[in-house]
Amino acid sequence: MLAYTFRRLLLVVPTMLAIITLNFFIVQAAPGGPVDQAIARMQGMANIQVGASGGDGVATTQQGSQASRGLDPEVIQQIKEQFGFDRPVHERYFSMLYDYTTFDFGDSLFKANSVTGLIVDRMPVSISLGLWSTLIIYLVSIPLGIRKAVRHHSTFDVWTSWVVIIGNAIPAFLFAILLIILFAGGSYFDVFPLRGLVSDEFDTLSWFGKIKDYAWHMVLPVTAMVVGGFATLTMLTKNSFLDEINKQYVMTAKAKGATEARVLYKHVFRNAMLIIIAGFPATFISLFFTGSLLIEVIFSLEGLGLLGFEATVQRDYPVMFGTLYIFGLMGLLIGIVSDLAYSWVDPRIDFASR
Fold it and tell me: Which residue intervals define the domain ABC transmembrane type-1 in the entry (predicted)?
C-alpha cells in the first residue's frame, strides 16, 4: 500500500500541471484582463475629474470624449510593465510554473499583499467553516441514515424524512438569513453575533473565553451550512444500508445466530460505507471552498471562497491561480486519503495489487 500511495503522490505533479496549464491559457484568452481593468479604472477617474472641473458644457463634453477614447500609449505600456504583461504569454507561463514549484504565488495585482499572505489570512475562516460543517454533517447524517434504514417505514423514518426534505428544500443562504432574523438581532432575539470570526476584544480574553467567543461566532454560519448539506448524505447512507441489509449474506449471518448489531456494524457497515467514502472528497471541497461563498458574504467572513470570487471579478490573475492551485492540490490529496480509507474500511480492497 505504501508503494501505491507513493505512485499516487507522483501523479499529483502531472495532474496539477495539466490543471494549471489548461486554466492559464483559458484565462489568458478571456477578455477584460487586469490591464483592461486598470485602464478602465483610470479612464473612469479621468472622466470624474473632467466632470468636476469642467466650466462650460462644450469644453466638458470635449474633454470627456477625449478621456473615453483611451489613455496615452506610454501610460498603457507602463501599466503592462507593472502587471508583467509586457512579456510574451509563453514566458509568463513558464515563469509562473517555476515560481509555483517553490510555492511562490507572487503578489496580488490589486491588493497590497502577497498571494500567500492573502491565503494565510483567509485560511482560518475557510478551515473553520469547512472542517466543522463536514464533521457535524457526517456525525449527524451517518447515524441518522443507519437508524432510518434499520427502522424503514416506521414513524421515526417518516418524520425524519420530512425534516430531511425540508432541510434539502431550503438553500443554505436563505436559511442563513432566517437565522439572522431570528437569533442575530434581526427582528426577534439578539443571541449570536452577526459578523466576523471572533470579537474585537478577542486578544484580551482568557483561553477559555477565546474558545467560547470563537464557538459563539461559528454557531450560525455552521448551522446554515449543515442544514443545507446533511440531507443528501443522510438519504445516501440510508439507501446504501438498505441495499446491503436485503442481501443474502446478511440473512445467512442472522440465521447463524449473529446479533443485529454485529451483523449491522461488522458485515453491513464496511460494504455500505464505500459509496459514502467515495463522495467525501467532493463534499469536503464543496463545503470548504465553493459552498461557503454566500455564507461568507452574509456573515461578513473573509474566506478563500470570497477571495477567489473577488479575484475572478477583478481579474487578479496571481490570486486566481494561487487559489486554484491550493484548491486543486487539496482535492487531489483528499482523493488519495479517500482511497486509503477504502482499504481501512474494507481490507479486501487492495489498490496496490491492481
Answer: 123-342
Same domain, 73 and 169: no
Is 146 within the bounds of a domain? yes
Look at residue 213 and tell me if it is in a domain: yes
Alpha helices in the chain (DSSP H): 2-29, 34-53, 57-68, 73-83, 89-101, 115-150, 155-169, 172-183, 207-245, 248-255, 260-262, 269-278, 280-288, 293-298, 304-314, 317-345
Using alpha carbons, list the distances in angstroms from residue 270 to 98, 145, 273, 342.
44, 15, 5, 9
Share of the chain above pLDDT 70, in %: 79
Q: What is the pLDDT of residues 258-278, one digit of tens each?
A: 787 888 877 788 777 777 777
Q: Evaluate whether residue 16 is within a structural domain.
A: no
Does residue 14 fall inside a structural domain? no
> 10 burial class (0-12, 13-18, 19+ CB within 10 angstroms)?
exposed
pLDDT tens per residue across span 82-94: 667 777 888 888 8
Residues 96 and 128 in one domain: no
Residue finishing a domain among 101, 125, 160: 101
CB atoms within 10 A of CB 119: 20
User: 119 and 87: one domain?
Assistant: no
The answer to whether the pTM exceeds 0.85 is no
Reduced to 3 states (helix: H, G, I; strand: E, B; else coil), residue 110 is coil
Confidence at residue 58, expressed as pLDDT on a 0 to 100 scale? 38
What is the Rg, in whole angstroms, of the alpha carbon atoms belonging to the chain? Answer: 27
In this structure, the answer to whether residues 80 and 132 fall within a common structural domain is: no
249 alpha carbon, distance to own chain's centre: 40
- Better-predicted residue by pLDDT, 32 or 195: 195
Instruction: Count other Cβ atoms within 10 Å, centred on residue 142.
Output: 21
Do 200 and 335 belong together in one domain? yes
> Could you tell me if 251 and 293 lie in one domain?
yes
Q: Same structural domain for residues 85 and 124?
A: no
Indicate if the pLDDT at residue 46 is higher than 70. no
**Predicted local confidence at residue 18, as pLDDT:** 92
CA angle 341, 343, 347 (to 5 degrees): 140
Q: Are residues 155 and 215 in the same domain?
A: yes
174: containing domain: 115-353
